[in-house]
Automatic annotation (TrEMBL), chain A:
Annotated protein name in UniProt: ABC transporter permease
Gene3D superfamilies: MetI-like (1.10.3720.10)
Cellular location(s): Cell membrane
InterPro entries: Bact_Polyamine_Transport (IPR051789), MetI-like (IPR000515), MetI-like_sf (IPR035906)
Annotated TM spans: 12-37, 76-95, 107-133, 139-163, 184-207, 240-266
Family of this protein: Belongs to the binding-protein-dependent transport system permease family. CysTW subfamily.
Keywords: Cell membrane, Membrane, Transmembrane, Transmembrane helix, Transport
From TrEMBL, chain B:
Residue intervals of the ABC transmembrane type-1 domain: 86-294
PROSITE patterns assigned: ABC_TM1 (PS50928)
Similarity field: Belongs to the binding-protein-dependent transport system permease family. CysTW subfamily.
Bilayer-crossing regions: 33-57, 92-112, 118-134, 169-194, 273-298
Species assigned in the record: Azospirillum oleiclasticum
UniProt keywords, alphabetically: Cell membrane, Membrane, Transmembrane, Transmembrane helix, Transport
Entry membrane topology: Multi-pass membrane protein
Protein name, UniProt field: ABC transporter permease
Locations listed in the record: Cell membrane
């Protein structure tokens, strides 16, 4: 459009600012990524005292750093449960909010409230509730609920954004062609909004997988990974802490990569197959 | 008993059901939102009710005792520590809000108005948002080798001869706390501001330019006013996150500073639940007041 135009000076200043911002975002995590390869006698800061995988090995020795394997498994499992519930519940609620219904405003504000109520409060409240009711808190009950109060608002807000831009003509066309409401949802609406559903799944999984404050009083007797990491910050003074940070961050990047890749794949497939209009299908 | 209740209720229920079925089919909507409503009621409304209830209970060193006393609130308001901690938290909020707003706005402005290809816009936007999906605790820890006494920053400043002795204020100070907040929460500003900016009609900018406005005037008289809703949403996120935070303060101040959330977390670890609950009630009221003030600027549902 304007490719020939020369860029103003302000562009280069802002680009430099943006570059610094990205450095600020990623610099520290790259630092601990490098430091996690410290030699066996290396410390928490530079210089590097040799290069080794010593601290990654250390991670899997049960005595050395608590229960890394168990908490990792629990966090992944909990993440998947939260992800599934978040996608299904947000999708269903998203459909409902397309039409006005009694109570919609109250429920909307309740959902927004869920987003702004401080995490530590949710944690305390659920802990107290289980305490009063005499139920033992557990990662798959109380912590699950605590995580959902954080992921569901994001899911619903994304659904709002999706349906605000959704062209109802697709559904009308499906209905005119004789599709039942269920067929319309299954074969028309869901395939169109699939990239957004992947986005909701990404929010659901990662926000749960990384959640600390909401898990603090709700996890019961078994730690999730963030609680384990937090425990380590107070009593571990070796680069094993960085090794753990590197492993979980790489895991997060893999999850994000899968989600982004999935969305791109869908987009590419769509542009390859394109519309079948006029092809006599 | 139950039989009479049923027969009495039946005629009343029937017309209501018929009205619904004949009308807009609300029951479908209600069925669709039922899981959301149930989850939020059980894990948000009831817990807050539990907090409010327990805030009036009594406690000793081992257990909490159902009662109705105001001592938790009296102790809270009576102590100068509370006021100091609230003031300190508000200081963090003010500093973090200012910095995240300035940085977030600039980054969003660059992405929305200076990057011309949509693909690049999306790639760079993704680069800004990816850290949101990684662990906050790890992101905080990762500052330690950078800021510490023997950290990267100190050692490079020393070797360059800029300083003679390591700077002590870099880690475990208010500086590192605010730095971590800015690091964690700037993208809460970038995303909504970018989102709002992308929906500004570009012809308005062209019109301003044709009318003789320079770049700065376009920014302050066209873009900034139209970006207000995004700024409000970002501000709500940042302010509520910092108000309720305790882990950043604990990790990054090394026990030197306090925040309202940390005060609560300490009471929780001492099993002083009623005191923590009273604290929580006040914190919730303060946060809701702040959000209500910010919501006057923006209608969230319109912005999605």
């Amino acid at each position: 459009m304007k490719t020939g135009e020369r860029r103003p000076v302000s562009f280069y200043l802002l680009a430099a600012f943006f570059g610094l911002f990205v450095l600020f975002l990623y610099g520290p995590i790259v630092t601990i990524g490098i430091l996690s390869f410290q030699g066996p006698n290396g410390g928490l800061t530079f210089p590097m005292n040799g290069v080794s995988l010593h601290w990654f090995g250390n991670l899997f020795e049960r005595q050395a750093v608590g229960d890394f394997g168990g908490s990792f498994t629990r966090s992944i499992l909990l993440g998947f449960i939260v992800m599934g519930i978040t996608v299904v519940v947000s999708l269903a609620a998203g459909f409902a909010f397309r039409r006005p219904f009694p109570g919609s405003k109250a429920l909307f504000y309740l959902t927004v409230a869920s987003l702004i109520v401080p995490s530590v409060l949710v944690s305390l409240g659920i802990g107290l509730m289980f305490n009063i009711a005499g139920i033992e808190p557990n990662w798959y009950s109380s912590a699950l609920g605590a995580h959902l109060t954080w992921t569901l608002p994001f899911g619903l807000l994304i659904m709002f954004a999706v349906f605000n831009r959704f062209n109802r003509a697709f559904e009308e066309a499906a209905r005119d062609l004789g599709a039942t409401p269920w067929q319309t949802v299954r074969h028309v609406v869901v395939p169109i909004i699939l990239p957004s559903l992947i986005g909701i799944a990404l929010f659901g999984f990662t926000l749960s997988y990384d959640e600390f404050a909401r898990t603090l009083m709700t996890a019961g007797s078994f730690n999730t990974l963030p609680l384990e990491i937090y425990g380590m910050t107070t009593n571990v003074t070796t680069p094993v802490l960085y090794a753990l940070g590197t492993v979980t961050t790489v895991f997060s990047f893999v999850v994000i990569g899968l989600a982004v890749g999935g969305v791109l794949l869908i987009g590419r497939r769509r542009s390859r197959h394109g519309s079948d209009a006029g092809k006599g299908v | 008993m139950t039989a009479t209740a049923d027969t009495a209720a039946a005629p009343a229920a029937k017309p209501a059901a018929r009205r619904r079925r004949g009308g807009t089919g609300w029951w479908v909507s209600w069925l669709q939102v039922a899981p959301l409503a149930v989850i939020l009621t059980v894990f948000l409304v009831l817990p807050i009710a539990a907090i409010v209830t327990v805030s009036f209970w009594d406690y000793d060193s081992v257990r909490i005792i159902p009662d109705f006393v105001l001592t938790n609130y009296e102790e809270l308001f009576g102590s100068t520590v509370t006021w100091r901690i609230y003031l300190n938290t508000l200081k963090y909020v003010a500093l973090t809000w200012t910095l995240t707003l300035l940085i977030g706005f600039t980054v969003a402005w660059f992405l929305a108005f200076h990057v011309r290809s949509v693909t690049w816009q999306m790639v760079l936007f993704l680069v800004c948002t990816i850290p949101f999906w990684t662990s906050n605790i790890i992101r905080m820890i990762s500052w330690i080798p950078f800021l510490g006494r023997n950290g990267l920053l100190n050692s490079s400043l020393l070797s360059m001869g800029v300083i003679d002795a390591p700077l002590e204020f870099l880690l475990f100070s208010d500086f590192s706390v605010v730095l971590a907040y800015v690091h964690l929460y700037t993208l809460f500003m970038v995303v909504p501001i970018f989102n709002t900016m992308m929906r500004i009609d570009r012809s308005l900018v062209e019109a301003a330019r044709d009318a003789g406005a320079n770049g700065f005037q376009i920014l302050t008289s066209v873009i900034l006013p139209l970006t207000k809703p995004g700024i409000a949403i970002g501000s709500i996120f940042v302010v509520t996150q910092v108000m309720g935070d305790f882990i950043t303060v604990r990790l990054m101040s090394g026990g030197q500073s306090a925040s309202v959330g940390l005060m609560m977390a300490n009471e929780i670890s001492l099993l002083q639940y009623p005191a923590a609950a009273a604290n929580a009630v006040i914190l919730l009221l303060v946060v809701l007041l702040m959000v209500a003030a910010m919501l006057r600027v923006v209608d969230i549902r319109k912005e999605l």
